[in-house]
Amino acid sequence: MNREIYQEPLVSRYTSIEMQQLFSEQTKFTTWRKCWVALAEAQYELGLTELVSAEMIAEMKANVDNIDYDMAAAKEKEIRHDVMAHVFEFGTKCPKAAGIIHLGATSQFVVCNTDLLVQKKAFELIRSALLQVIKNLGEFCNEHKSLPTLGYTHYQPAQPTTVGKRNTLYLQDLLSDLDYVDFFLSRIQARGAKGTVGTQATFLELFKGDHKKVRELDELVAKKLGFAGTIPVTGQTYSRKLDMKLAETLSGIGATAHKFAVDLRLLSNLKTQEEPFAKQQTGSSAMAYKRNPMRSERMTGLARKLMGLPQNFAGTYANQWFERTLDDSAIRRMDIPQAFLLTDAILKLFINITSDMVVYPKQTEKHLKSELPFMSTEVILMEAVERGESRQEMHEVIKEHSVAAGKVVKEEGGDNDLLSRLAADDRVPFSIAELNELIGDYQKFTGRAAEQTEEFLKEIVSPVLEDNKEFIGEYDASLSV
Length: 481
Known about the structure:
Elements: H1 9-14, H2 17-22, H3 25-45, H4 54-62, H5 69-79, H6 82-93, H7 107-143, E1 148-153, E2 156-162, H8 163-187, H9 201-206, H10 211-224, H11 241-270, E3 273-274, H12 294-307, H13 310-318, H14 329-354, E4 358-359, H15 361-375, H16 377-386, H17 391-411, H18 418-424, H19 432-439, H20 449-467
Antiparallel strand pairs: 1-2, 3-4
Helix pairs in contact: 3-4, 3-7, 3-10, 5-6, 7-8, 7-14, 7-20, 8-11, 8-20, 11-12, 11-13, 11-14, 12-14, 16-17
């Protein structure tokens, strides 16, 4: 590492080698060459044997990885064109094929097809990571499906839920993200061999006006590059609308991660649930006792960056005049790799956190106990009516004591004494023992939370994991810092 120049933190600190390699120059330029090989092979197989020979193709294949980057860089500096610089450099390695490399193609033949190939592989990595998070979180939900905890609305105590049920909410959003990834993967097709402005005019000339052969060329190139088909129509580039959807899909994963991470940070403050904390980890340089949720905080920051990217992609798409303008080039070089690298970094953290989250049942019970008297008032009200009391009168009595108990908690810092107040009031037909018995079983206040969790895991999550079991466990989620 050269410490005298800026280093991209996404590469130096946060992301996997696999994702970094996908967006490397080596992957980019060797894939350009594979595109040129696919084009030459297809042209040869479709009858252009007077121009393209098997010997030329063999020469090109033998030199796909043999790149002189210094020569290509010097040529690009001279002619100000990266694709033609690499056409030239590839030609020096393939003297027999030099004249037919890039035959009939425009620069975007290699650029767009390579971008789409890399994006497809990157989404497959993202998909594998998503499945691992889903698996981890599913196991966590199952383990804690019956553990009662306070539910919150407006970050104010509401009805109880369970720890497992709460986490099914994140799990459901992750499954939604997986659906969108699958949809995007289903939409990725090759740009194919479309020509300078998408009309295939040059290829039609090469094949002497044979429209059928030109269509076959488009399809055959796509097949050789590993695509099921080609985008039906393009300008010089494939529509940057597809890039918009790419960014929206990835930023959706970021939003799910952000929501999860912020909630975990709030729970960490309550001391009820925490991310893993390494044995030698330091929480604060000054306060040795601290256990800062640094992984969740990092995930929040990375997700914030990712969620801000889609507007760039929308602006790029909207500003593509007619068949294409070059203002898409520089920003796509930065934003597309960055979108995938950010998502990769976020999912590494997500897997790491969900693999070993910590729950503190006693602290969870403490928070529940402090609020449960308020939440149990409806049960008390209904039981009082069962004993012949007026609902309206009993509602007023309970409200009177609830307000007074709330004042003790908020203004005086005391314990919630609502049950004692109710038991001491002759208008209330319950002793303190009876009231404690009424609210003693926390589980009955959680409704169908445990059952909902079980049903969701069995009916929705498990089939997805079973159908994708070969893709789970392939993602390296170790953290470098």
